[in-house]
Amino acid sequence: MVFDAPPAPHSHSWMPSSPCGSGCIEPIDQVGTARMFARLAGVLGLVLTFPVLTAATPRSRRENLQRRYARAALGCLGMRLRIVDNRPPEQVSAAGFADSGTAVMVVTGHIGWADVVALAAVQPCSFVARADMVEWPVLGKLAQLTKVIPIERARLRELPGVVGQVAGRLAEGNRIAVFPEGTTWCGRAYGSMRPAMFQAAIDTTTPVQPVRLRYLDRHGTPCTVPGFVGEDTFADSAERVLRSKGMVVEIVLEPHEHPGLDRRDLARRCEAAVRGTDRSRHGVLDTEWIEAGSTRVQDPSVDQRIPEAATATAW
């Protein structure tokens, strides 16, 4: 495996990073240029009509509308959705992650911007995401409408406040999706789930829904095309996805994890549920931690064993 992305400039050594770069991206079957532009036109049409139809739809029916739009967006991206529900009967909800008005924290690994669309196709929810996402073309409007909770990863002091916002939303009975790795990986490798965000579930005694999210090619092999890694720009990543053919996004809903009282233990349990028997292609980073108020961050004095790469990030 080639790690050809240059080292990322970090404001703080605690910031999560992954070694994934453009060398991790392996192309799959592609459509022609005309088909790619037709897909792009479909996505733009959805983005332009979504705010209008949302405003015109009764509040009680908006969730179903948003789910249909997300599924249509996946279709425009050339992806088929597959949902596998491994939860016991008492946890299964016809609505998706949870019944309306029932709080749940959804946690999964982070591969790229398409993760947001894939999760919304199961059931719309709010997200904790990088602050500049609201400025992105296409996804920015979706981020605003889904009430994204923004986070500036370079500002450690803001993290407890973001955890507090998540706890507040959960206490109100909302669904919140978080990416506890704190950064994107290629889809065949992954990092450890950081414990900070899990404190919100513990403080509100909210069940956690582990989700195993994978992108597969037409042969059923894990696909790295949607990975938003290395020096990727949104335009580069979007073109790569729009050109690809035969992709399937697989969402596996694992049994709920009770929050308990220890966020480190909860993070480990959720990571085990999400990863199963899979092993990271790049190995799992062993990290040491220090306390920083109500959050834990990586000890800046610990030597990094794996070179850091410039990665697209979201919390």
In sequence order, what are the helices and strands, one letter per element? HHEEHEHEHEHEHEHEE
- Which assembly state applies to the chains in this document? single chain
User: Terminal Cα separation, in Å?
Assistant: 26 Å
Instruction: Tally the helices.
Output: 8
Number of domains: 1
Structural class: alpha/beta
Overall residue-averaged pLDDT value: 81
> Which shape, going by the Cα principal axes?
globular
Q: Enumerate the spans where pLDDT stays under 50 for 5 or more consecutive residues.
A: 1-13, 284-315
Q: Which strands sit side by side, in order, in the main sheet?
A: 1-7-6-2-5-3-4
Number of strands: 9
Beta-strand percent range: 15-25%
The portion of residues assigned to helices is 25-40%
Strand count, sense and closure of the main sheet? 7 strands, mixed
Q: Using only CA atoms, what is the Rg?
A: 19 Å
Domain Phospholipid/glycerol acyltransferase: 104-216
Keywords: Acyltransferase, Lipid biosynthesis, Lipid metabolism, Transferase
Protein name: Lyso-ornithine lipid acyltransferase
InterPro entries: Plipid/glycerol_acylTrfase
Structure, described:
It comes from Nocardia neocaledoniensis. Residues 104-216 form the Phospholipid/glycerol acyltransferase domain. InterPro entries: Plipid/glycerol_acylTrfase. This is Lyso-ornithine lipid acyltransferase. Keywords: Acyltransferase, Lipid biosynthesis, Lipid metabolism, Transferase. By secondary structure, the chain is of the alpha/beta class. It has one domain. Helices cover 32% and strands 15% of the residues. It is built from eight helices and nine strands. The strands form two sheets. A seven-stranded mixed sheet has the order 1-7-6-2-5-3-4, sandwiched between helices. A two-stranded antiparallel sheet has the order 8-9. Helix 4 links the parallel strand 3 (126-130) and strand 4 (149-151). The longest helix has 24 residues, at 33-56. 44% of the residues are buried.
